[in-house]
Amino acid sequence: MQNPNALESRKRLIAVARGDAPADLVLKNAHYLNVFTNEWLDGDIAVAEGKIAGVGGNYDGKEIVDAAGKWVVPALIDSHIHLESTIVSPREFAKIALAHGTGTVVTDPHEISNVIGTDGIRYILQATEGLGLDVRVMLPSCVPATPFDENAGALSAEDIDEFYENPRVLGLAEMMDYVGAYSSDATIAKITAAHAHGKIVDGHAPALTGRVLDGYVAAGIYSDHECDNYENALEKLRKGQYIMIREGTAARNLAALSPLLTPQYASRCLFATDDKHPNDLLEKGHIDYIIRQCIKAGIDPILAIKAATCNAAQYFSLRGKGAVAGGYDADLLLLDDLNSFAIASVWCGGVLRAEHGKTMPLPTPAVDEKLLERAKNTMHANTISAEQLSCGKQPVIGLIAGELLTTDCGVAENIDVSADILKVVVVERHKNTGHIGIGYLKGYGLKRGAVATSIAHDSHNIIAVGTSDEEICAAVNHLIAAKGGICVADGENVTKLPLEIGGLMTETPMEQVNEMLENAKSAAYALGVNPQIDPFMSLSFLSLPVIPALKILTNGVFDVTTFSYRA
Amino acid sequence: MQNPNALESRKRLIAVARGDAPADLVLKNAHYLNVFTNEWLDGDIAVAEGKIAGVGGNYDGKEIVDAAGKWVVPALIDSHIHLESTIVSPREFAKIALAHGTGTVVTDPHEISNVIGTDGIRYILQATEGLGLDVRVMLPSCVPATPFDENAGALSAEDIDEFYENPRVLGLAEMMDYVGAYSSDATIAKITAAHAHGKIVDGHAPALTGRVLDGYVAAGIYSDHECDNYENALEKLRKGQYIMIREGTAARNLAALSPLLTPQYASRCLFATDDKHPNDLLEKGHIDYIIRQCIKAGIDPILAIKAATCNAAQYFSLRGKGAVAGGYDADLLLLDDLNSFAIASVWCGGVLRAEHGKTMPLPTPAVDEKLLERAKNTMHANTISAEQLSCGKQPVIGLIAGELLTTDCGVAENIDVSADILKVVVVERHKNTGHIGIGYLKGYGLKRGAVATSIAHDSHNIIAVGTSDEEICAAVNHLIAAKGGICVADGENVTKLPLEIGGLMTETPMEQVNEMLENAKSAAYALGVNPQIDPFMSLSFLSLPVIPALKILTNGVFDVTTFSYRA
Fold first, then answer.
1. Cβ atoms within 10 A of the Cβ of B197, count?
2. In chain A, count of helices (H) and strands (E)?
3. What mean pLDDT, rounded, does chain A reach?
4. I need a surface site. Which of A91, A151, A403, B392 has the fewest CB within 10 A?
5. Beta carbons of B18 and A54 less than 8 Å apart
6. For residue A235, what is the nearest residue in chain B, using CA coordinates?
7. Neighbours of A337 (CB within 10 A)
8. Mean pLDDT value of segment A39-64
C-alpha cells in the first residue's frame, strides 16, 4: 500500500517547509491567490518533492524565480473532457493543454471504449501515466450509447469494475442514460457499484427538470455539464448537483451560466470543455480561455479561478489539488497579468512544463506494445464495392446548419446532386459484419466526390457521404486502408487525415493535425460543402441516435422520435 | 463489494423521488435550508430507504409530518470528540446527543486505546455499529502520549492499519506529536499510511505558528481544533487547515474564533467539542448549544449551521451527509424556532430518533462477548498497602485553579494538611508492574480522606491524592475493586462512581451518572477540596506530561520543562 519513498519524501518536504533544507524551487515575492480566504497575499512559494512545501515565508532554494509583480494561482482543472475529441494522442494534447495552464484533466474515454472496449480505458490510463499533465479518468457509463449502436461491445458494471482500483480513476462518467437511470437494473448497478467503491458519478441530463430530475439526482449522480440555461442550472445546483459550466468547441454554455459565478453559488461551479477541437485549443486556449472570458464579463477573477481549481478538487476529492498551500501539489501558474490571464510559466508536480506558451519536452509514457497495436488496428472491415451501396427508396435526412438536430425530408430513390440529395452510408467496422446502413442526406451541399470519417458518434463506424456510390466507396476504402481518420476524395485528389489510434486520434503533433484538418476542410468546401456547416463534425453526429429527428446507423436510417429503424 | 440490497434500495429511492411510489415519510411544507445556495426554501421533504428522495415537490408518503411554519436543517456533526470524555458508553451518549440534534460524531478512541490498545478501537466500532447515531472513527495517532507514559502498549502504524478498511474509519486522529511530526519516522509513517489509504489526518497543534506550523501542515495534516485565538486560527486557515472551532467542557474557543464565521472564511470552519462532560451535555447541549451561542452572538445562522453540517461533511468526504437534498442521508432536524434553535424532532437515516428532547429507544449494538469482557476488566494491578507509599523528599506540584498548567513548589518530605501539602500518587494498572509514582501536591485543599480516579490522561493509570497514606490506599483499592472509576473515601464514607468500561465509561444512563458524579463532587468538596477546582478533572490532567511545569507519572514526578523525571 505504502510507497516506500513516501516517508523520505514527506520528511524532506517538512524540512523544506520549516526552512531546515533548501527548496527545489522558490517563486520569490509572489502575489498569490489564497483560495481558502479568498484573497491575494504576498510571499514566497517553496517547492520540493513535487509539492508546495510552504508559502509566505522567506524561503531559500536551488532555483529561484523572481515572481515580484506577478500573480501565482493553482494550475487549472478541466472537470470533463473526452481526450479523443482533440483527435490527437493524450501526449500531444498535453503539450497544448500545459501551455495553456492546465494541470489536471478529468477525461471520459467514452469514444475509444466504443472502439476497443476496456482496452480503451487501459490505453488512456497507460498513455497518461507519468505524462506531466495529471490525467484522471471517469469510467465510461454508456457503451454503447444505445441498444441500436453496433460498436465493439457493451461494457457492463462488471467489465469496468477492476478499474476502480486505479487511484487515477475517480468514478463513473456522465450517465447519459437518463431514462435507464430510472428503469434499468444494468444502469443502476453501474451507479451503485461506483458508490460502493466510494467514487462519484457524473451526470449528463440536458434540460432535465422537476420530478424526473429529482429521480436522476436521487440515483446518486452528483454533477451536470449539460445545462444550457441559467434556470436549469440553478435547479440542478439547488438539488445538490455540482454544475460543470461547459465551454467547449461545439457546445458553449458560459454566457448562459456565468451569472452563477457569484458568492452565493460559485462554490458549486466547475469548468469543463467536454469536446475540444485542435483549432479551438490552439487559437482560443483551454480552461484559461474560459477564465479570460469570465474576467472580461466582469466576474470576480477569484471566483472564476476557484471554479477551475479548488472547486473541482473538492468535487473530485482530489485532496492535494487546487490551492497554493503547503502540502499541495506544486501545480502552479505564474501570470504576467491577472486581467488578461497571461500565463508566463506552468509547473506541474513542481516541474516546469511550459513557458510563455511553449511546452518543455514531455515524458513518453510506456504503453504496452500489444495494447498499442490493438489501439492502432481497429479497422475490422473489408473494403466495400459500389454494388453494396445500391438501395431502393430511402429516407432523406435533412441537415440544419449549426444544429445537431435533423429534419425528416421524405424519401428519395437516387442521388440528385443538383437537388442536394446525396447518399449517406454507415459502414460497420468493428466486427466485420458487412452491415452498411444507407440513406440520403440533404443540406450538405457536396457537388463532387465524397467525404468519409471514422469519427462517428458514439460507435465510431465509418460514415460517408458522396455524390456517387463509386466516390463513396473510394473514400471509405481509403479510410479503411489508413486505419481510420478523415478523407475527402474526388477521383485522384484525395486529402487524408489518418487517425491511427482507434480511428479517432493520431500521434502527429496538434499543429500539424490542425493544418491537415484545415486542408481537408478546404478540400471539402472546394467540393461544394455548405460553408455554414463543418464538413466532418456534421457527419460525426449524424450517427448518434439520441438527437431527433433522423440519424443513420449501420442498419439504416433511424427515427429518433420513435426510437426505431425506418422500415 | 456491492451491497446486494443497494440496487433495490436505490431503485425505490428513485421511484419515490419521481413521485412514482409513496415516501416512507414526508415533512410537509417545510421551510428548509439549502446549503448549496445559502437560502431558505419551502417545500416537502420526502424520505425513503433512510435517505432523502426529493425535496421541494408535493410528495405523498406513508407518514406525513406537518412542517408548516417550521424549519428543517441537516442533523449536526461533531467533528472531533473523544466519546470516553462523556464517561458513559457510546449508546448512553447517543441517547443524549440525538436529543440535541446530533446525527454524526467523529470520535477518536484515544483514551480507551491507551487502556486496551487496538481492542479499544474495536470496542468503539462495535459498540456504535447500527446505533442510530452515525459514529465515525479517527484512529488514535499518539498512543501512548509520550515515551514516559506507561499504558497498555504502543500503537504503531502497522497496528492500526487494518482499521482503515472499515468505511466508518475516516483517517488518523489528532496528531499531537507536533515535535515528532518533523523528526520521528514512526510518526511520519502513520501520516503517510493514512494518506496512502486516501484518508485524512487531523491536527492538534496549540499555538503552533510560523515556520514550525508550515512544517506541520506540510506533513499532510488537514485540520486543527486547538486554536484559542483568532490570529492563530486565521494563520492555520490561510495555510489550508480546516479550523474546528472547539467548544467543549474544558476548552472553550467559540468566543475567540466566532469572528471566523463570515462569508470569507466560514466554509473552512467546523464545530467540535473534543471533551464533553455529562452535566455540560445535559444542561447546555451539544453542537446545538454552539449554534445557539452563534445565533445569540449575531452570526448568520446559515453560516453556523453549515459549520455543523455540510462543511464537516466536506472535510471528512462524507458524501451523503450535511444537506437537505435528494440522495442525502435523511439526517434531519425539525425546528420549532430558528433563533432559539428549538429542536422539535430528530431523524437519523430516516428514523425518528428524538422528539422535544426525548430520545426513542435505540438499538443495542452487539459487541463481541470476549471483547466486552476485556473492555470491562482493565484493572491489572494488585491492591496496594501504605508501606508502598513511603517516600523520601519529593517535589511539590502546585495546582492552579482553572488551568492545566502547574507550578513547581519546591520539595516536601511529609504530608502537611494544614499547609495544604498532600500526597499524590499514580499507580500503574495495565501490566501489574507495581510501579507507583509518588509526589506532593499543593492547592488541592483536601482536609480529610482521599480522592482517586482511573481517568488519568493519557494512560489512565490510577491517580490518587490524600491526607494520609492509609486513606490513599483505601481509595485506590476501592477503585481496583470497582474495576475503575472515581472514588472519594473518608474512612467508612465511600462515594463511588464505577466506570467499568476501561475504567473510563459506564453503561449506566447519563442522568444517573451525572447525579453520582455530582454526589462524588459534593463529597470531595465536603472534605475540603478547593471549590475553585474540579476535584476529579484537576487530577485527571496531573498525569499528562505535556503541559508544564510538573506532572506525576507511574515512576514519579515529571518535569515537563526538561521532559525528564525529577531525580
1. 18
2. 18, 28
3. 96
4. B392
5. no
6. B37
7. 12
8. 97
Q: Closest to A239 (Cβ–Cβ): which among B10, B239, B326?
A: B326
Please give the interface size between A and B, counted as residue pairs whose CB atoms are below 8 Å apart.
201
Q: Which of A165, A171, A209 is nearest to A190 (CA)?
A: A171
Q: Under DSSP, is residue A244 helix (H, G, I), strand (E, B) or coil? A: strand
At residue B403, the pLDDT reads: 86
Q: Is the peptide bond before B549 cis (omega within 30 degrees of 0)?
A: yes
Instruction: Quick: pLDDT tens for A8-37.
Output: 999 999 999 999 999 999 999 999 999 999
pLDDT more than 90, % of chain A: 94
Q: Are A263 and A236 in contact (CB under 8 A)?
A: no
Which three cell numbers mark A108? 471520459
In the block, which residue shows the cell 487511484? A167
Do the Cβ atoms of A126 and A366 come closer than 8 Å?
yes
Comparing CA positions, the residue from A486, A525, A489 lying closest to residue A508 is A486
* CA–CA distances in Å: residue A222 to residues A24, B215, B319, B320: 39, 35, 10, 10
The residue in chain A having the minimum alpha-carbon distance to the alpha carbon of residue B317 is A317
Give all strands of the β-sheet with A169-175 in edge-to-edge order: A76-81, A102-107, A134-139, A169-175, A200-203
Length, in residues, of chain B: 567
- Nearest CA of chain A to the CA of B270: how many Å? 14
Residue A181: strand, helix, or coil: helix
State the sign of the Cα–Cα–Cα–Cα dihedral A309, A315, A316, A317: positive
Residue A425 CA, chain-centre distance (Å), reads 26
Asked if B454 contacts B484 with a C-beta cutoff of 8 angstroms, the reply is yes
Residue B7 is nearest to which of A41, A182, A185, comparing CB atoms? A185
Q: Which of A10, A219, A317 sits opposite B14 (nearest CB)?
A: A219
Q: Do B15 and A215 touch (CB under 8 A)?
A: yes
User: If we measure between CA atoms, which residue out of B162, B179, B114 comes closest to residue B140?
Assistant: B114
Query: Looking at beta carbons, which pairs linking A480-485 to residues 24 or more positions away fall under 8 Å?
Result: A480/A379, A480/A381, A480/A382, A480/A383, A480/A429, A481/A383, A483/A376, A483/A377, A483/A378, A483/A379, A484/A378, A484/A379, A484/A454, A485/A453, A485/A454
* φ, ψ dihedrals at B551, nearest 5°: -135, 175
- How far, in Å, are A561, B438, B474 from residue B557 at the CA level? 85, 7, 22
Q: How many CB atoms lie within 10 A of CB B346?
A: 29
Compute how many other C-beta atoms are within 10 angstroms of the C-beta atom of residue B434: 12
pTM of the model: 0.96
pLDDT value at residue B390: 95
Contact B218 A319 (CB under 8 A): no
Task: Tell me how crowded residue B109 is: count the other CB atoms within 10 A of its CB.
Answer: 30
- Please give the Cα distance from B350 to B549 (Å, whole number): 50
Q: Which residues fall within 8 angstroms of residue A505, CB to CB, at 6 or more apart? A: A83, A84, A86, A87, A88, A89, A112, A499
**Using a CB-CB distance cutoff of 8 angstroms, which residues of chain A are in contact with residue B195?**
6
3-state secondary structure of B77: strand
Whether the Cβ atoms of residue A554 and residue A531 lie closer than 8 Å to each other: no
Question: Cα distance from A237 to chain B (closest Cα, Å)?
Answer: 7
CA distance B486 to B475: 9
| Whole-number Cα distances in Å, A440 to A273, A407, A412, A469, B177 | 32, 12, 7, 12, 75
Q: Which chain B residue is nearest to residue A322, measuring alpha carbons?
A: B240
On the CB side of B305, CA atoms within 13 Å amount to 27
The rounded mean pLDDT for chain B is 96
Return the beta strands (E) in A126-226 as ranges: 134-139, 169-175, 200-203, 223-224
What are A450's three cell numbers? 465524397
**Residue B38 Cα to chain centre, angstroms:** 30
Give CA separation, B210 vs A324, A329, A371, B219, B239, in Å. Answer: 17, 21, 51, 14, 10
- Which residue's C-alpha cell is 522558490? A26
Q: Which of B55, B214, B238 has its CB closest to that of A36?
A: B238
